């Protein structure tokens, strides 16, 4: 060492870090979604693969282009928009015309995320913003479901998939209702086993409750997901469902049907748990989850639509900052008996 | 009577950084050689600088008084070696600012015997006399805070102290000085406890040791004198378990009120090395002229625990411990709360618990993301603050709101929030800046 000594770097403490990183968390959420996406492709074939691909690409391209337009470095590499793209694709009916898929992806990322200031500033889950736009703009296309495990699913795509923009989609004969619609409009109950394994109609990624749960458990174990949110959602839906079913079994389905049907599992595990749009305290997360559960039940039982997870989560997203405002952690050394 | 060895639950929240103590924990404390010139700053503690009582060219004996306390918020300084005073002049301090210091040149041939003073007799001294002796011995918190110990021990008139906590937690990674003191200076610790119990009027002492030093706790418990009202407590390994508020919460389930002191919950805490120094020095009327430090980290080849003279220039110390040429970062203290040094031309002071040197750089590796509300910091903060919210407010410059609504001034900068932040936001740095702004504005108004 010479007399002047080494060049020293100066940082403020702490000088070590846990190694956690936003892009690592986001990448792991994508990993947890991959089995769900794989099952969607297995169940709905080429149609789901195309839907997911276009959803992912439209979201990535939107974020990249908007960053470029803002003369800011592209934030695609933080993996958060990859989650949005995958999640968005998984919430769509497999036979949705691809141009609609691209439209929703653009709206979701542009208006749900970039307009707010990008990652960390979005008030709502961008994937759901995109889907909500589609639901409002194309209600018919959004409620047209294909049969799962169709024999020709890997060789043919539904006629509606390649509908040119603004043309009315043509549907094949082989469409089928979701378990929720079957119950709501025809009073027909689906087996819980089929719901768990995903042998039903529905949005491409919402059908297999089991794989969604596995992904959620992986993330919760790695502390990348607050388990209190899905627990509170599922708990409150189960509770309300159980009470309603006990009071009037012919009008209301049993709790297990409520839990494993529709988009509840995907929404509870992957959508509502968006860190940015959910409360920061544990108590806040429980209230937020219970609120979503209550809204889901209300919309499903008494709303015009068979499903209510999307609107329930978006409404709760809006309430989330207010929950944080009211429920700050009790600071050490204050207000303890 | 308390059972002698107890295991306690910890405090809530906190983090688990790598302990990194295995390199030095089993190395005995070694005496450090004298540097060619010692630099003894007159201000090594919180408070007012000491007043020199020696003049240039005067010969002094090791342990002799160099400077006396200037008022109550001040402590004495003692000669780290037998030698001659070169000059009393400005020397660079830790912050880079120049401050007055006494330059002492040790005599190479001297026997370096330590001067004896007037002993403080444990049995006859009054509490106030013990506090006086502690001040005159130049004793400050050796855990790193360097707050004058006699001020900390003085019980407010309207309070009584029931418990003395001797803090041997040492939760900062790499540091093993308290560990070694608890192994090698048990007798000094017990004597120190007797002085401290008498000075504070506390009825019992609790020695707290972290679970990664279980064998130390066992040996302390086995060695406890039968007539000493003390017990040894093992607390879980968690950072910042050694923080006063956290330790009191863990041992006694009492919460020091926001903005308050341990005496508000009838407790006084003293670092174990400080306690050992009191037990070692007071019976001989001596003053602190050396202390135990850990020199470690990946950038040091001869890692170890050393009893080092106060005023040893850091450069000399690091050269003796054979520092790697590629060293890129040097901290005073541990890596969680320690201060990074811009210069090696500063002396070892009483508050120095160690020096840690790293060789790898980190400037390029830390890309800052926006806050994603992951709540890792909220789950880490031992004081249940909301670092995420505080960080956003700091960015927006809303300093008064940070203090009034979010208790910023309670933050003791333990670094847990920055440690866990996946967005790599320099939260503690922002909080320090915000606190400085708040103090400035409040002083102005």
How many β strands of chain B by DSSP?
18
Within the CATH hierarchy, at the fold level, what is the topology of the domain at 5-27 and 119-284 in chain B? Rossmann fold
How is the biggest beta sheet of chain A arranged?
none
* Biggest sheet descriptor of chain B: 6 strands, mixed
Which spans of chain B have pLDDT < 50 for at least 5 consecutive residues? none
Helix content of chain B: 25-40%
Number of helices of chain B: 13
Structural class of chain A: mainly alpha
Rg result of chain A: 22 Å
For the terminal residues of chain B, how far apart are their CA atoms? 53 Å
Strand content of chain A: under 5%
Give helix % range of chain A: 40-55%
The helix/strand series of chain A, from N terminus to C terminus, equals HHHHHHHHHHHHH
* Total number of beta strands of chain A: 0
Indicate how many domains the architecture of chain A comprises. Answer: 1
Global Rg of chain B: 22 Å
SS-derived structural category of chain B:
alpha/beta
Number of separate helices of chain A = 13
Description:
The complex is a heterodimer of chains A (337) and B (445). Chain A is an all-alpha fold and 337 residues long. Chain A has one domain: Ammonium transporter fold. Chain A has helices at residues 22-44, 46-69, 80-90, 98-112, 126-137, 179-186, 192-197, 209-221, 228-247, 255-260, 264-271, 282-302, 309-326. The longest helix of chain A has 24 residues, at 46-69. The N and C termini of chain A lie far apart (59 Å). The model of chain A has no long low-confidence stretch (mean pLDDT 91). Chain B has helices spanning 127-136, 149-153, 177-184, 186-200, 214-223, 244-252, 272-281, 314-320, 376-380, 387-395, 399-406, 416-420, 427-444, and strands at residues 5-7, 30-31, 38-41, 51-52, 59-60, 65-68, 77-78, 83-92, 98-106, 163-168, 204-210, 230-235, 267-271, 290-296, 304-309, 329-332, 339-340, 354-358. Among the domains of chain B are: 5-27 and 119-284, NADH-ubiquinone oxidoreductase 51kDa subunit (Rossmann fold); 376-444, no CATH class. With 445 residues, chain B is of the alpha/beta class. Chain B starts with a strand and ends with a helix. In chain B, the strands form four sheets. A six-stranded mixed beta sheet of chain B has the order 2-15-14-18-16-17, with helices on one face. Chain B has a five-stranded parallel beta sheet with strand order 1-12-11-10-13, with helices on both faces. At the A-B interface, helix 1 of A face strand 16, strand 17, helix 12 and helix 13 of B.
